[in-house]
Amino acid sequence: MTDVLQLSPYAPDEINEEMDRRFSPARYWEFQQDEDLKAQILPNIRVVAAKGDVGLPTELMASLPNLELITVYGAGYDKIDLDQARSRNIIITTTPDALTEAVADHVVALALASSRRVAEGDRFIRNGDWLRGKLGIGYSLRGKTLGIFGYGRIGRKTAEILGGTFGMHILYCDRNSDPAEDSQCRATPLELANESDVVVIAASGSSDTKNIIDINILEALGPQGLLINIARGSLVNTQHLIAALESRKLGAAALDVFPDEPNVPNELISSPYTTLTPHLASATLETRLEMGRQVIENISSYTRNGEVFSRLNF
User: Fold this and answer.
1) Which tens digit of pLDDT belongs to each residue from 66-77?
2) Residues 270 and 213 in one domain
């Protein structure tokens, strides 16, 4: 009987085909309602193949007494019970290097789509509004100040692109950096927003960062400011965001992530000041294939010799 549990299918499907060929994993989505099968399969599981946006439910983890490894297809781990994993000495791996460039590229796409009114212009034509008048003008990112909250791989790659190609001035806020040692570093998200035209959220989701982007930060960014979130929806207080947009105390928001996906508040959907994408920042064929390859290689290496790559320190 297999000792690998795959919680949900990956895309593209060739990753699933390779998983089947290498490990013949138990497919949780196919038997999760069958209590008899769960009783037969779950006690034997040593490895779980998960996704960053879905994680591993606490109750399911607790029902896997022999679990040794959780390998995540993605960079996020906020939906995994780290306390339980730590207490049971369970190893967690992620695929952070695989998606850095794709997610940073999506930041640029969202920044341009909002600042140059690309998505709004598309709707303008499709709705027939161009027949009644012109849309109006956007603004250039060049020479503006970009504040990055979370200065890890994605944050740094974003800075490289927008700071280099677009000539934006870069500031950042990161819990592992000291403003006394770097003139570009700011101590808090509020300080960052006060000095920025555009703020990109690239920090990890956790209990410490839940709702950290609140009304004070949004108002500090201001009526000409743009908020971009490609991290986790939980970092932004959604009701504060809606209020700031509706009161015009925040200029615009470009969002790829939401707290209760796939549910998105109607106020954000209907707002003329939002640009929305359905959590697809890493969704390129090349990136997803590499993410799948890393998941497979971690499982293979662990089952062969107990070693893994890109181990999470927590």
Assistant:
1) 999 999 999 999
2) yes
Is the domain of 82 the same as that of 131? Answer: no
pTM over 0.85: yes
Q: Which residues of the chain have pLDDT under 50?
A: none
CA–CA separation, 244 and 125 (whole Å): 27
Range 128-151 burial, b when 16+ CB lie within 10 A, else e = eeeeeeeeeeeeebeebebbbbbb
Which residue matches tokens 């982007």?
213
- Do 191 and 63 lie in one domain? The reply is no
CATH number at residue 59: 3.40.50.720
Domain-embedded: residue 312: no
Q: Could you tell me the residue range of the domain that residue 49 belongs to?
A: 4-94+285-305
Nearest Cα residue to 77 out of 62, 58, 92: 92
Tell me which residues are annotated as active site. 232, 261, 279
The answer to whether residues 193 and 213 touch, using CB atoms and an 8 Å cutoff, is no
Q: Considering only CA atoms, which of 256, 221, 252 is closest in space to residue 235?
A: 256
